[in-house]
Specification:
mainly alpha, 3 helices, elongated, cytoplasm
C-alpha cells in the first residue's frame, strides 16, 4: 500500500468512526475497520449489521458458565 492509499484509508476510517459516534453505535475503530474489510471482501452489510445486533443482545459469557479445565 502506498503512502497516498494509506492516508486515504486512515481518513476514511476517521470519517466512518466520526459518523459511528454521531449515531451512537458504540463501535470502536478496530471493529469498524474489520467490518469495512468484510464489506470490501463482498459480505453483505445488512447481514453484518444483523450479526452485530445479535451479538449485542447475547449476555456475555461469565467465567462461571465455562466448563472447568481438567486438572493434570
Amino acid at each position: 500500500m502506498d503512502l497516498e492509499a494509506a492516508r486515504n484509508a486512515k481518513e476514511s476510517l476517521d470519517l466512518v468512526f466520526h459518523m459511528s459516534n454521531i449515531l451512537e453505535t458504540g463501535l470502536d475503530r478496530h471493529t469498524l475497520s474489520v467490518l469495512i474489510a468484510l464489506c470490501e471482501h463482498g459480505l453483505n452489510p445488512e447481514a453484518l449489521a444483523a450479526v452485530v445486533k445479535e451479538l449485542r443482545r447475547e449476555p456475555p459469557a461469565s467465567s462461571s458458565s465455562l466448563p472447568a479445565s481438567p486438572s493434570p
